[in-house]
Records
---
Amino acid sequence: MSLKGKTAVITGSNSGIGLGVARELARAGADVVLNSFTDRDEDHALAADLGREFGVNARYIKADMSSGAECRALIEQAGACDILVNNAGIQHVSPIDEFPVDKWDAIIAINMNSTYHTIAAALPMMRKAGWGRVVNVASAHGLTASPYKSAYVAAKHGVVGMTKVVALETAEEPITCNAICPGYVLTPLVEAQIPDTMEKYNMSRDEVVRNVMLSRQPSKDFATVEQIGGTAVFLCSDAAAQITGTTISVDGGWTAL
Ligand code: NAD
């Protein structure tokens, strides 16, 4: 499978799943645009290293996915967007009646609204190019719920719904739109949840990982960023040309329960 000649924009891709997806798309030959809101020297160096490693054109573009205008500017600055991976996301855990309003607004903006803005900006480019792939990184929480994650679950269910609508609006075109729904993947986002959970349940790190995080993941193993990246590459392949408007779970059996 070669994605040579295609340009992929991956939001939130200076770490974790986004970086893993960017690496697999680059390995398949795509030029990649990395993104985050940080704009540090190491973000630009990360892109340069990735480009050298896989022999592709790799750039870093700063854009804050909590701003609709910056989401759209990211796509415009990329200049081409054959493959759009909406991955940027944050998490906050709190009972709904205590959920801080600023956290709620940020999660809905970054995890859901950004997907609307980038898709709206990218679709005209895909139509002009005569080919396009939208891959939204949703979550098992786009299909099921957990307590204390109201904003995240609402946002991810929203992304899954948006995925279906975009697929229907592009159904007769050579464009597909799908969502990947990972279970737990060990990334900085997940690492950051461990200390709070250890304190809340008075558990060791191992107990939190096995009995809390992976309690609903029957494989009892984390998914890897390479597996999420490989799934994205598959969705960009010719074999997936008739796969649109659906979700692919990479969750060790979580949503089979
Ligand atoms: P991560 O914290 O490692 O990465 C999040 C990425 O988003 C980073 O690159 C960060 O820079 C970027 N980001 C955050 N706020 C941003 C903003 N305002 N503007 C631009 N970029 C921003 O987390 P991750 O675990 O790799 O998560 C990536 C995606 O995968 C998220 O959408 C998350 O909800 C989803 N997901 C993760 C898991 C998991 O277990 N790790 C499971 C299911 C879904």
---
Amino acid sequence: MEKINLKGLTLEELEQFVLSIKEKKFRAAQLFAWIYRRNVLSFDVMTDMSKSLREKLENMAYIGQLTASNIQKSTLSETQKFLFQLNDGLFVESVLMVEEKRRTVCLSSQVGCALGCTFCATGTLGFKRNLETWEIIDQFLAIQRLTGVDISNIVIMGMGEPFLNYEAVLKACHLFNHPDGTAIGNRRIVISTSGIIPQIYRFTDEKQPFKLAISLNSPFDNQRSSIMPINKHHPLERLIEAARYYAKKSRQRITFEYVLLKNVNTRQEDADQLKKLLSGIPCKINLIPYNAIPDSNWQPTIEEVEKFYSYFLNFPAVVSIRWSKGQDIQAACGQLAASTGELSV
Ligand code: SAH
Ligand code: SF4
């Protein structure tokens, strides 16, 4: 019989598992706490279970783990990038950012990405496959095991488009949120999408409690289509309509991300159109100065960034500039591109 990976299972699924091996239901809660809260990898250490039960579990199940094949530390900030090897030999990257008040992990949702945004390192890789729930969860748990850092926030902003791996991502987020596990508050978990419209409606109608961020990057359809090909299928007007629907139904603010690309989307008319587009939507705008990836020439100057920011002084929503951390180890937004075991430094 093939062993079952218990990592990635919900409490209810663990209950089904323990019942299926003729054990008492309360064993599931013990397993849940060992796997997600205590972050252990073997049944051996589960001291509240008898030796015979631990042996039985060992024979029938295992606790999956990713292999860290490289870790890089930034010299510019408290940022570390982790390269994880998956069991089929593929790689994903994750990032830990330690700030005064927050310790945030940026997690990947897919290996590569099918959406091919022209400015994004992951986009240039193409799509390999979706990550499974346990592979999303173990990026967090592995970082915790390796660093001992008490992680407080999660952003699903690494490699891939989370809304094209909707079920696995949402299941992972609910597990992260569970009070008996890692217990990350629902408003401390952010899912960033490039704008997969049907999934925004689904996320809204399911009343998902996590924060939603939308990568807008341009307020004009033709411009957006040229840098984000997904816009041809999910155009701006319908995307904004979906965002309004979310804001109205959930009564939550949306974060709009806007990557500043030199001489592309930083004109006054871009700012004016952006303000027009978002008027009346309770939101926050994060301006992200483009982080250079190899062979790109889109990094704006500080003056260009500050000038663009100044166009929003009279705008009611909170607008902030997100200077990225960890550029020196290519760990900033959009720089994750683990195509092989070798990191491109
Ligand atoms: N696929 C999702 C989440 C991953 S990308 C999405 O697109 O939202 C996370 C963010 O990084 C997006 O807002 C994207 O626009 C931004 N990004 C991509 N490449 C970047 C780069 N080189 N510099 C700065 N931000 C980048
Ligand atoms: Fe995919 Fe997001 Fe990168 Fe676009 S920006 S290619 S959607 S990961």
